[in-house]
Amino acid sequence: MLIKDIINALEEDAPLHYAEDFDNVGLLVGNKNTEVTSALITLDTTEDVVEEAIAKNCNLIISFHPIIFKGLKSLTGKNYVERTVLKAIKNDIAIYAIHTALDNYKKGVNAMLCNQLELVNQRILIPQKQTIKKLTTFVPKAEAEQLRNALFSTGAGSLGNYNHCSFNVEGVGTFNPNEDANPTIGNIGETHYENETKIGITFPKHLENKVLETLFKSHSYEEVAYEVTTLENTNQNIGMGMIAEFETAMTEVDFLNHLKQKMKVSNIRHTQFLEKPIKKVAVLGGSGSFAIGTAKASGADAYVTADLKYHDFFQAENNILLADIGHYESEQYTKNGLVAILTKKIPNFAFVLSNTNTNPVKYF
């Protein structure tokens, strides 16, 4: 098993194309062609985590948060980031980070949080924009079925619970090959009329290279006429946060007690009670102040997130109960979820759940 095999398995579900622009994801340390002994799964990569990897004979660390976030201009060990990276390099340990690619995955961080809270009817809170593309191409009518099937095999043409979706229009195409052409149909210097099918098919943006490669390979024309456009359609499979519901509404006090129990937290920072039941809940693991307005607009009774500042709480405006449970606490089950995903995909490989508590925040 090579590092790249594990990466490919992870990115089938959470392609790095959907990570946020500010993020630093992917293989941060190491060579993707290295043979893997076993992999340690962690929320953060720290010096202690690298020591744990050494002790457990793991030469790959799969981390939710990236240890290298900003550019490194030197590696002298002057801070915890440099010391961690140096320790990993000295011990031939690779580091891979998935972060916001997993945040934006429908069954990723926020789905894991919803599941822990026993919330149902889950859907994306903030769908990521411009994630759907459309291919339009023209093919001889007799070859249309073959080309459609080739494109479908790449994953194109999937819409929600439906696949093999396309739109087809028949018409007549014209072209006149010049003296440098090598036409598969028609003659040089003569205008040719061909009964063609215009095929329109959508696909997720991370498949673009694969779709175009298949188009060129499967199409009979020397010059393939096509266009790719980015759609503004909402994609409910990619995005930040979740909006979901409890099977049965509960009081605000019961809700906060439920949060404490399920998330194993000793205290919760929250806004004032509104004396209304909690049924619909928005969640966003990690720093989520930017989504307060969206949570309110969604009709959520409560919003569970982390890293809210003093003035963020004023945004509740007596419309929603804001609950800050802590950054680490809101994402603590992510490493368990990663182990579950990878074990299902690669059942005969050793994925080790890190038992190092990397939470830098302590409570007195």
TrEMBL record:
Record-level Gene Ontology MF annotations: metal ion binding
Sites where the protein binds a divalent metal cation: 65, 103, 327, 331
InterPro entries (alphabetical): DUF34/NIF3 (IPR002678), DUF34/NIF3_bac (IPR017221), DUF34/NIF3_sf (IPR036069), N-reg_PII/ATP_PRibTrfase_C (IPR015867)
Signal peptide: none
Any one cellular-component term (Gene Ontology): cytoplasm
Keywords noted in UniProt: Metal-binding
Xref: Pfam families: DUF34_NIF3
Family to which this protein belongs: Belongs to the GTP cyclohydrolase I type 2/NIF3 family.
Full protein name: GTP cyclohydrolase 1 type 2 homolog
Organism the protein comes from: Mesoflavibacter zeaxanthinifaciens subsp. sabulilitoris
Organism phylogeny: Bacteria, Pseudomonadati, Bacteroidota, Flavobacteriia, Flavobacteriales
